[in-house]
Amino acid sequence: MAFFRSVSALSRLRSRVGQQPSLANSVRWLQIQTSTATDLCSELKELIPEYQERVKKLRKEHANVELGKITVDMVLGGMRGMTALVWLGSAVDPDEGIRFRGMTIPDCQKKLPGAFPGGEPLPEGILWLLLTGKIPNKEQVDSLSQELRSRAKIPDYAFKAIDALPVSAHPMTQFTTGVMALQVESEFQKAYEGGIPKARYWEPTYEDTLNLIARLPGIAAYIYRRKYKDGKIIPLDDSLDYGANYAHMLGFDNPEMLEFMRLYISIHSDHEGGNVSSHTAHLVASPLSDPYLAFAAALNGLAGPLHGLANQEVLRWIRSIVAEFGTPNISTEQLSEYIHKTLNNGQVIPGYGHGVLRKTDPRYTCQREFALKHLPNDPYFQLVSKIKEVVPPILTKLGKVKNPWPNVDAHSGVLLNYYGLTEENYYTVLFGVSRAVGVGPQLIWDRALGMPLERPKSVTLEKLEQLCAK
Ligand code: NMX
Ligand code: MLT
């Protein structure tokens, strides 16, 4: 009875909302069901037949529906705006930014369990939401934390593989090497060699994905301790959640830093399917490469300075400003002069611009809110705030930059730096650990939905010219 009462209240609310578009977005999350399953795998198993039916119906009844035109500009312009992928976990609106299964970041902060009441969303909750589209409760999230801890043991040869590289190797090179070493234990590879039928591919993919997510913080922390500290491993703490444990294994136990890590991992997890790392993972997994192979490839894309490495570049650039003027407390004129100097050198302003977004990234905004709450007087935070005022009009004046506003990477470095994680070359590893939480669920769905090998058509330059001449 209570269920029917809430359904009819919800439909009344929806019909009112339909007349008030401004309210429509803010209540969309109400339509997301809360989860009732005992564990993540059972929840997923129940959902798979329904999703398979939906895909079957689309292919059978709507195979020829056109989703847009493909223009020469798109083909030569990095496929911007070309709808070419299905991605279940999230979608990015150019003006509003990310929604995780329909939920904005503030929705997630309100509705997903935190480590304490009112705390930032736990990454385990985001993982549950991205995989199932349902909101987990605290008990479910705690049991997923426990499950991830129980899967976290790293084989010794993975550390040895990393040790084979010089300490000077970039942390992302060490990270990909560690992930490739974990691949030795791939359940998918074993199952495929054992002749598993296609209908069950998702099962070992699920195992690999959860094992991979569980083990990444241990690998990532090892690299940090090896490269920047005494090399001693800090073991996992059985009382801590995923984000807090990662911070702890790095060597940080300040409760504010633990809370920032929960937020950091949650907001960096997913950004629909077309970004370089997510798209790479999906592409590489499409010929049935297992999740380790696919994710290692994704990390190599993330390591590019126009993608995930931008977080490293942002702090490096901020430090170069401070070095130039001898202080972070600089005037607007000095900052403007430095921005022009960077642009005149033929460099980009790191942390600004985006392939899809056309407004300030909400992932920037929520980090700014975190900083306003915890470190409002930090001089680097104040410099970042000033940069946000000065950069956009300058980029706009260039006349070619489609989005002059800050993205996720414009902010993360100063928060990490404040809490003592000062080594900016490590920052993309943090992004990488987080991205697995978003990419992993899609890799499982790719196999559950029987997604085929990805193979778009290319044209030669001559053919393109011929097509244009017609
Ligand atoms: N500073 C200077 N120039 C820029 C910037 C920027 N921040 N952003 C775009 N432009 C230039 C861009 O280089 C291009 O110039 P040209 O025609 O001479 O090659 C022109 O403006 C048009 O580019 P857009 O269409 O606006 O951007 P596009 O979709 O091609 O690229 C990025 C998107 C994110 C690669 C680009 O904005 C950029 O290089 N930003 C700086 C690096 C960065 O912050 N990357 C992180 C993205 C988020 N992430 O985490 O992955
Ligand atoms: C991401 O989180 O992947 C970046 O914002 C880049 C993108 O979405 O293209």
Automatic annotation (TrEMBL):
Name of this protein: Citrate synthase
Protein keywords: Transferase
Domain of life, source organism: Eukaryota
PROSITE patterns listed in its UniProt record: CITRATE_SYNTHASE
Cited Pfam families: Citrate_synt
SUPFAM superfamilies: Citrate synthase
Similarity comment: family membership: Belongs to the citrate synthase family.
PANTHER family: CITRATE SYNTHASE (PTHR11739), CITRATE SYNTHASE, MITOCHONDRIAL (PTHR11739:SF8)
NCBIfam families: cit_synth_euk, PRK09569.1
